[in-house]
Every structure is written in structure tokens, then in C-alpha cells.
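sanity check this chain:
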Amino acid sequence: MKFRTQGFTLIELLVSIAVIGILMSYVVANFRTNQKSGQIDGAIRQLISNVSMTQTWATAGKLTNGTYPVNGYAVVFDAANKKYTINRVEADKTLTVVETVSLPPGITMSLCHSSIVNVTTVFPCASSKWTAVNSITAIFASDAGLTVDPDKNFIGGILQQTATGRKAYFYISKNSGLVTGDTL
């Protein structure tokens, strides 16, 4: 008598399910890590883009609240509250918030400034040449260029993803108005 086997044995099915389970756990873990890494990339790109946009608004003129601001626009960085605001600088030098940008959950901000002349080889907040601060105001005006509080040559900061430890930096040159940054 001939027995014809069709299908799989129970052991073969269990081994296959175990292998698929192990592979899926690896894929999900990598997906979550990459998702968090992408979050810091997106946050630094958005920050640099918003600062550049604020510069453009100041030099080209951006109509907000039905008028052009007399003294330009400002970006105020607030490390303690993990946010920055884009503001109009009114005639009396007060700031009116146009937009508030909060950092994504799990991302922290450290701010610093420096009086050094050449910052190209030193990352912000990474050496004794930088002084840590809790907030920084950068005012962009079409006629006066960039005004920084505190009044230093460079302002900058580090964004850090708390779950992965991944960091990104940015800095703004008072002299040239250059805004740059990248992930570390």
C-alpha cells in the first residue's frame, strides 16, 4: 500500500513560523530605528529651512497681519520648551509671533554662542569656545543685516534624539548670515 503525503508536517510548519517571526522582529526593530533617525533629519532640515525663510521674508518683504514689519523678522530659539518661534519685529522692537514650531517628541535642543572668528572646524556646543545658553534671538532686518542676542559672531545648537542618541547641529553666522547644519 502506498501512502501519499501531501502538505507539510506540523514540525515543518512550526519551524517556518519561527523563522518568519525572527525575521519580522528584525525588520520591525530596524524600521523603528530608521524612523527615529529620520525624525532628527527632518527636524534639522525644517529648522534650517525656517531660519532661511525668515531671512528671505526680512530681505524681500513678507506681508503679515496686513502690513510689512518695519524692523524685519526674528527667530527666537527656546531650548527649555523645545521650540522656536518666527516673529515680526514691530516698530517699537517688540516681537509678534507669526509661527511657533515645536520639536518632535523625543528631540531635545541645546543652544550656544561663540565669539570665535572661524567656526568651520568646531561644531556648536562641542568645545570650550562655545558658551551654553537657554535662548537665542536672531533678528533679520533688510537694512541692518543680522542682529543676535546675545551679541556673538556665531549662534548655534544641537538637536538630539533621546531614544537613539543621534545628533544634528546648526549654526548661524552673524557676519555672513549663513545658516547651515547637518547630522553628526
Notes: The chain is about 30% helix and 35% strand.
